Amino acid sequence: MADHHGQVVYTPGQLCTAGRGYPMYPLPRCRALAKRQCAGGAVDEQVRQDCCRQLAAIDDSFCRCPALSHMLVGMYKELGAPADGKPMDEVFPGCRRGDMKRAAASLPAFCNVDIPIGIGGVCYWLSYPMSPMTGH
C-alpha cells in the first residue's frame, strides 16, 4: 500500500486474503474438479459449470489465483498431505502433488475466466513452492 499525496493506493491483489477478496473456504466445487482432473477421472459437466461460476464470482480478478492457492492449501490439509511436500508425492491415490497444482493452476483457462497476471490463463506461480503459513 502506498500513500500518494494523502490518497491511499492499493496494489493489485493486495486485498486478496481469505474473507476479504474471496471466501474463507474458497471454491468448493473447484476442489472436486481439481481432484477429478488430477486423478484422470471424467469431469462431470455440472461440477465444471459450478466451479467456473464460483471462480468467476470472485469480483477482483487479481484475487482468483490467490483463492486457488488458498484452496490448494486447504485441500492438502483435508487430505492429510504435508503442506511442504514434493511434486512427486501422492496427495491421494492416483494424484501427485505436482499434478494437483497444475490442475488448480489451469482452472482459469479451463473455465475461460480472466486473470490479469498469468500465461494463457494459468496461475503459473502455483507451481512454485508455497509457504505453509501463508499458502503463497
TrEMBL record:
<dbReference type="GO" id="GO:0004867">
    <property type="term" value="F:serine-type endopeptidase inhibitor activity"/>
</dbReference>
<dbReference type="InterPro" id="IPR006106">
    <property type="entry name" value="Allergen/soft/tryp_amyl_inhib"/>
</dbReference>
<dbReference type="InterPro" id="IPR006105">
    <property type="entry name" value="Allergen/tryp_amyl_inhib_CS"/>
</dbReference>
<protein>
    <recommendedName>
        <fullName>Bifunctional inhibitor/plant lipid transfer protein/seed storage helical domain-containing protein</fullName>
    </recommendedName>
</protein>
<keyword id="KW-0964">Secreted</keyword>
<keyword id="KW-1015">Disulfide bond</keyword>
<dbReference type="InterPro" id="IPR016140">
    <property type="entry name" value="Bifunc_inhib/LTP/seed_store"/>
</dbReference>
<feature type="domain" description="Bifunctional inhibitor/plant lipid transfer protein/seed storage helical">
    <location>
        <begin position="16"/>
        <end position="123"/>
    </location>
</feature>
<dbReference type="InterPro" id="IPR002411">
    <property type="entry name" value="Allergen/amylase_inhib_rice"/>
</dbReference>
<comment type="function">
    <text>Seed storage protein.</text>
</comment>
<keyword id="KW-0732">Signal</keyword>
<dbReference type="GO" id="GO:0019863">
    <property type="term" value="F:IgE binding"/>
</dbReference>
<dbReference type="InterPro" id="IPR036312">
    <property type="entry name" value="Bifun_inhib/LTP/seed_sf"/>
</dbReference>
<dbReference type="Pfam" id="PF00234">
    <property type="entry name" value="Tryp_alpha_amyl"/>
</dbReference>
<dbReference type="GO" id="GO:0005576">
    <property type="term" value="C:extracellular region"/>
</dbReference>
